[in-house]
Amino acid sequence: MVITVGRIHRIIREAGGRLVVAVDAPTIDLQQLASFLDNVPEGVVGIKVGLPYLIHYGIRQLRNLINDYPKLYFIADLKLSDIGDIMALSAKEALNTGFNGIVAHAFTGLTGALDKLEKVVHDAGADLILQVTMSHAGATHTFDRVYGAVKEIINGVNADALIIPANKTQIITDVRKAFGRKHVILSPGIMIRGVSPGEAICAGADAEIVGRAVFDTRDPIAAARDILKMQEEYLRKHKEICT
Asked: Where does the chain have alpha helices with state H?
């Protein structure tokens, strides 16, 4: 397998960015989102766009917005889980809009599924991002029970990044030990799952993802800055034990 180094490696690791902001709720209109992106704090390196937002505004309406901010990394959080041909068709729609990364579920499997998706994504010069597990309680009875098999799938797919929730730091650390620096690890769920900003990074993640704690405030820019400061403070206080 030829291992590629996608843009997500460069924009997060080389730029040193530690925060990706998620936009899911359609109540944040395109103008509000553009206003946030116009003033995005240093340290925010990407935007993860969720399915509710994509459905409400339509994927093509996001084309101009994505093109206007070429320095930011845009993730289409489709959480694909289907046969390869269908996932490839879905990915092409997002890639034609300008998204840099496509999210798919790792448990979907390799042969006839992620292998086809990987080719389409990489042929377009984009990144494949795999969802390893989820943060909700029910995931312990499904995703986490097949974690061993998921690791085998990750080992067989040339994915560029992995998403592992911040409330499962033991999995973040285990994946980092198992695969080294091969994958960028993004971690959602800080601020709402009882996890402090910086905690997932300390466990081995490259960056954390936050949505509601930014956009459910009167001043999203200030909220993002505060989270970046909290990350720095946590890492400073725990530097002796961080991965």
From this structure: 7-9, 30-38, 51-57, 63-68, 84-97, 115-123, 147-156, 169-179, 199-203, 212-215, 220-237
User: Kind and range of the H or E element at 210?
Assistant: strand 207-210
Task: Go through the domains of the chain in sequence order and give each one's CATH number.
Answer: 7-237 (3.20.20.70)
Residue 206's contacts (CB-CB under 8 Å, 6 or more residues apart) are 12, 13, 18, 184, 185, 186
Q: What is the pTM of this model?
A: 0.94
> Is residue 1 predicted with pLDDT exceeding 60?
no
Residue-wise pLDDT tens digits, 49-69: 999 999 999 988 899 999 999
- What tokens were used for 14? 């080389």
Q: Which amino acid is at 120?
A: V
Contact present, 86 and 112 (Cβ < 8 Å): no
Residue 16 gets the label, from left (phi > 0), alpha (psi -120 to 50) or beta, of left
